[in-house]
Specification:
Elements (H helix, E strand, L loop, with lengths): L6 H12 L4 H8 L3 H12 L18 H14 L1
Length: 78
């Protein structure tokens, strides 16, 4: 998973765009994926530009025994 960008960087990118620059250009200048910049723009409109916390660990839905059986079945088929 990619590292979260700082709030300072997010604000710089949004200010760059506010100055009239294109989002594609901002993506190249700041070396970010254009989808990230579009997502930040949407969050900024909603007032949620701040860095979000990562989600807590979510346990597996399968119990360990069922998971072992699944792994065994996959190895047999290949």
């Amino acid at each position: 998973m990619a590292k979260a960008c700082s709030l300072d960087l997010r604000e710089k990118v949004m200010e760059y765009i506010k100055e009239g620059k294109r989002k594609m250009e901002a993506a190249k200048v700041f070396r970010l994926n254009r989808k990230t910049i579009y997502r930040w723009g949407k969050k900024q409109k909603e007032g949620r530009l701040a860095v979000t916390k990562r989600k807590a660990y979510k346990p597996q839905k399968l119990d360990p025994e069922a998971l072992r059986n699944t792994s065994r079945t996959i190895r047999i088929r290949h």
